[in-house]
Specification:
disordered N terminus; mainly alpha
Amino acid sequence: MDNNLDNKSDNNFENTQLFKEEKIEKTRRQLFFEILGTKIWELFGLNILFVLFSVPLITIGPATCGVVRVTRNYALDKQAFLWGDFWKGFKQNFFRSLAISIPTGLAVLGSVAGFFVYSDLAASVSKGWYIFMALTILIGIVMVMMNFYAYIMLIFTDIDIKGIYKNAFILTIVAFKTNFLLFLFCGVLIAAVGILWFYVKFMTLLFLFIPFAFNWYIICFNCYPIVNKYIIEPYYAD
């Protein structure tokens, strides 16, 4: 009799927990779209700022910091001043951000080059080169996903660059499923805009208004809670 009561209690507890988790997730989904609905025009403006201030491998890092500073506040449903917060993120993190943007850019370029080189070698010399091609692509993907966390930690913590890379790699592995889904979504969005631009030239305007700020809003909404849980909260708890 007692065992049956215990089992029922356990089942009720589990059901209650599942209900709470589903409710929290539903609430987060609602919050995501509610914030997006109120900030959509600001995201368009933020994307324009990013494009205007980005010079690949030179200022794309600082510009990303500006975008992340704004979109993180949006993701937390906090007030952000579009120009003021963007410029603050850009200026305050200018030099430190280069330690992230330049290695990432080189890693991505290396992955693209490796894909073509190793695929040709695999086709003409030995199938074993496909292993190196896969490893090259994997390194590029992991490096990009590490950026989801590296820029957040760069702006909102005092962790040095070595620690940022270490923690970013750990969080990339810990939340790999979330990170990979984000990588796919963001990649598809940018690719879709790129394809539209290729076939319909006036669609170039989409690059001015949509992909980068919107992607970072999604990334901050999903990744900042992970940084907060594993990095920021333990730091202040100590």
